[in-house]
Structure formats: structure tokens, C-alpha cells
Amino acid sequence: MEFDAIILAGGLGTRLRSVVADLPKCMAPVNGRPFLEILIGRLRKQGTGRLILSTGYLSEVIEAWVREKYPDPQISAPGDRRSDPGRHCIQRGAGRPGLQWRYPV
User: Fold this and answer.
1) CATH classification of 3-94 is 3.50.50.60, yes or no?
2) For the stretch 10-32, what's the b/e string if a residue is b when 16 or more beta carbons lie within 10 angstroms of its beta carbon?
3) N- or C-end of the chain: fewer Cβ atoms within 10 A?
4) Where does the pLDDT of residue 79 fall: very low under 50, low under 70, confident under 90, or very high at 90 and above?
5) Rounded distance between C-alpha atoms, residue 7 and residue 5, angstroms
């Protein structure tokens, strides 16, 4: 069964700053690959349809990487820069017609 997912990728990464000072924490390399790439790959294998990335800190880095790596319109990073981007993205995403939620992550 296909389902949709929201990935909260907007944290400041304060605990990882000493390791990846110039990257958002979701882009931290794990075995040479951004963590976000690994997460997206696993969600795809589980049957996810649409992926919405809720970005915040260094959102332009995430958005540029997503556009280059995944030109698929099923993956989007709307880049909401409000004080609570995760909450807003979930509210906005939950109201979209046709979304099939399996479980929140």
C-alpha cells in the first residue's frame, strides 16, 4: 500500500555542529551519503508515495540538494521558514486531498 510521509528536517543541529558546521543535520554524511538520502531510500522501499520535507535551518541547502538528486515531483521541500516549520508543514500537508497517511514518523 502506498502512503505519504512528512520528514521533519528543520532542526538547528546544535549537537552536531562540531561535526557538520556548514550542513543541516539531515545532510550529515553517514558512510559517505547524506542521512536524508538514506532515509528517503528506506521510505521508498517501504512504499511511500509523496514525500514532503519540512525544512528550516539552512533550508536552501536541503532544497537545492532535493531538486538535484530527486527531480521527481513526488518529493518536495516547501521551505517554510516560520518559527515552527514542522507544525505548519504537517497542517498544510494533512489538508491536501488524496494524501494517504500510514503512520506519522
Assistant:
1) no
2) bbebeebeeeeeebbbbbeeeee
3) N
4) low
5) 6
The one-character DSSP state at 37 is H
Integer Cα distance of 32 and 1 in angstroms: 31
20: which residues sit within 8 A by CB, 6+ positions away? Answer: 13, 27, 28, 29
**Residue 62 in grid coordinates:** 536541503
pTM above 0.85, yes or no: no
Query: CA nearest 36: which of 51, 46, 49?
Result: 51
What grid cell was written down for 29? 554524511
- Domain boundaries, given as residue ranges, for the chain: 3-94
Q: Which helix (H) or strand (E) holds 60?
A: helix 59-69
Residue 79 buriedness (CB in 10 A; 0-12 / 13-18 / 19+): middle
Q: Which amino acid is at 64?
A: A
